[in-house]
Amino acid sequence: MKTIAKLAFVTAILAAPFSLYAGSHSAAPASASSSANEKTEGEVRKVDKDAKKITIKHAELKHLEMPAMTMVFQVKNPAMLDKVKQGDKVIFVAEKVGGQFTVTQIEAKQ
């Protein structure tokens, strides 16, 4: 009986590093599973066409590890600012481009 217990203990000790490795690498990392094209809901607080910026009160941006807040974004294409106005509920995509948080897609929520 002691031999079986010792064998089980040794097997568990030897297998532990492999099971830890498999468990920590079996799923895709959070950043890889979150899409850079993740759509987020928000509300437009300000549109600044001259500065090519938009202020949005937004939900959590998980892929950017950012909590819900109100912030100013650059826009990828200034023409996007013609699609929305202050007070609009929107669905948008934000990415970090050149070190700046940038709205790459935006549409008024229907």
From TrEMBL:
Residues 38-47 have a biased composition (Basic and acidic residues). Residues 1-22 form the signal peptide. Keywords: Signal. Pfam families: CusF_Ec. This is Copper-binding protein. Residues 25-47 are annotated as: Disordered. Residues 25-36 have a biased composition (Low complexity). It comes from Noviherbaspirillum saxi.
